[in-house]
């Protein structure tokens, strides 16, 4: 129950408890004011005794503490109160105000819908008699007025009761619907949380599996290419050491040189496919700050690093990817941009991380960038491949003469 519902319930309790006393007091005061309606002392004594009896009956019934359940005790109280109000209204019609209390609590006192309406009808008889001039009915005109008031009062109460019953039914249905929606929303939120956790776990496992596969592939390549090439170079150099003349030595030196060049090409090709990164224990923001500062000192370019949002400890693969993207972007800026100022921003945005690298260099047309070759660096394709490897994306905005902006957007996966 909400605070508003509790306040409404409290006010209803006060009305049902003190409203009867109030209406009885109003009826008594008006009856005293219209004293000419009771002409004999016996009527005054009877009215006084009945008022005292009404007060004692109300004290016996007790205050209302929440909605009552219809019972035999409640029925006895209702009948006795009606009998007292009927007798008082017979003595003085102004006691009809006290009789109207039967309208308010018949559904809480009398069990059964039909009995409740019979109780309301009995109350309507007393109230209509008071409104028509008091009982007994002394003339046909008063009788006609009594009949009209009886039908009008009962019809009005029937309409109001029907509307109230429908509104209570709708309120119960709304409350049940709201409760069901709350349960459904809670279950849906739990499912969403479980799916998000599972998605993050699967993402980490997929990246870790990819890293493991790449390491196995690289180990096999090193064994099949670099190790064999180095073995061949050593063999050729051993032959040179024992060569009988210069011509033979020169031949084997040329062979060793060819093997070295071939092995270097294989090494570059392997680096293009996987580049391990070692981060410091301080975390990605500190590593980026140090990288940007050292690059600025080495190149003489004004470089600034900014962190926005609440920094978190990232998974090592995510941190390594972002660090290598910054390193490659700074390398491109120093080789090609001729920039006077470079800014790097790392933004933590709840469920993702955004890395922006901007420079005020000479810029370029992104559509005319040549494809990277085996002898070149990673370049834009390498940075984009790194971002996509961890389910991220990389965008490049540049225009000749207006600088370059590189933005990498990756999921925020926290460190285990």
Protein described:
With about 425 residues, the chain is an alpha+beta fold. The chain is about 65% helix and about 10% strand. The protein is built from eleven helices and five strands, in the order H-H-H-H-H-H-H-H-H-E-H-E-E-H-E-E. It has helices spanning about 5-35, 40-60, 70-90, 95-100, 105-110, 115-130, 140-240, 245-275, 285-300, 315-335, 380-390, and strands at about 300-310, 340-350, 350-360, 395-400, 405-410. A five-stranded mixed beta sheet has the order 1-2-3-5-4, with helices on one face. Helix 6 (about 115-130) crosses helix 7 (about 140-240), helix 7 packs antiparallel against helix 8 (about 245-275) and helix 10 packs antiparallel against helix 11. The longest helix has about 100 residues, at about 140-240. It is rod-shaped and about 155 Å long. It starts with a helix and ends in a 5-residue tail after the last strand.
Radius of gyration: 47 Å
Strand content: 5-15%
What count of helical segments does DSSP give?
11
Sheet of most strands: 5 strands, mixed
- The averaged pLDDT comes out at 83
Helix and strand run: HHHHHHHHHEHEEHEE
Percent of residues in helices comes to: 55-70%
Q: What is the topology, as strand order, of the major beta sheet?
A: 1-2-3-5-4
Number of strands: 5
Secondary-structure class: alpha+beta
Query: What are the segments in which pLDDT stays under 50 over at least 5 consecutive residues?
Result: 273-278, 373-377
Task: Give the CA-CA distance, first to last residue.
Answer: 42 Å
Characterize the overall form.
rod-shaped
Question: Which terms summarize this structure?
Answer:
416 residues, 11 helices, alpha+beta, single chain, 5 strands, 9% strand
